[in-house]
Amino acid sequence: MNFPFYSNRKREEDESQKSSDSNSLHPSSFILHPCSSATLIPNQDDSVLIDSIASAVVRRGMETPAVLFLELNRPLAFLYSQGLHFATPLLGVFAAPEKVSRLAYLLDCPDKVEQLIARIEELAHEKTAVSGERRGAKPENSEL
Q1: How far apart, in Å, do the first and last CA atoms of the chain sit?
Q2: pLDDT tens digit sequence for 97-143
Q3: Domain segments of the chain: what residues?
């Protein structure tokens, strides 16, 4: 605040104090991480969404391309999420806008992308274990 009756000496003291205060703050202290507590989706909904996406990917047999795509594009996931936020009204014609926005919020957080990759790999491992047991089992009516 600049008041005409404010002395120059007082103004200089205030400016020096401001500069010393600003030096103590780290520039990254003002950056909000996309995974901050300000996200609109609770964690239980995140796990349900992650599980449904992972099961759909494994059911279609696309676990390897999906994991490869997520791993390669992990640095760009935040940009993809912002694109989804922008395109939600347009994509609302093809999918429910709530699902598109939930996916966008999921991609905002790198930890959630990592959870999705881990869940896809876990379900794929379970699928191969089950199919391996079926191959190794002998049919009941075989006479060998």
Answers
A1: 95
A2: 888 988 898 898 889 999 999 999 999 999 988 877 766 655 555 55
A3: 43-131
Structure tokens at 126: 């379970």
Contact 110, 77 (CB under 8 A): yes
The pTM of this model reads: 0.64
φ/ψ region of 65 (left if φ > 0, alpha if ψ in -120 to 50, else beta) reads alpha
Rounded CA-CA distance 52/16 in Å is 56
CB 100 within 8 A of CB 91: yes
Say if CB 45 and CB 115 are below 8 A apart.
no
Question: Cα–Cα distance between 117 and 94 in angstroms, integer?
Answer: 25
**Which three-class secondary structure state does DSSP give residue 1?**
coil
Rounded Cα distance, 35 and 83, in Å: 17
Q: Which two tokens stand for residue 66?
A: 């999906």
